[in-house]
Write a structure and sequence with these properties.
mainly alpha, transmembrane, transmembrane helix, membrane, 62% helix
């Protein structure tokens, strides 16, 4: 582990993030997990898949 990361962890422990920041990060993680779950269950929509303008790869 790099000593810079230890210093960063020390500063973070002394000055933890505000409850609002923690809620924001958890909300972003929850949205990402929901989108991943939807994609896993129903798959990726065909109309959102980009098409190559160069043609098929040979």
């Amino acid at each position: 582990m790099n000593p810079a990361w230890l210093l960063r962890a020390k500063r973070w422990a002394q000055n933890p993030p505000s409850p609002g920041r923690v809620k924001l990060v958890l909300a972003v993680i929850a949205v990402c997990l929901v989108l991943f779950g939807i994609e896993l269950i129903w798959g990726w929509p065909e109309f959102l898949t980009p098409e190559s303008r160069r043609g098929p790869i040979r």
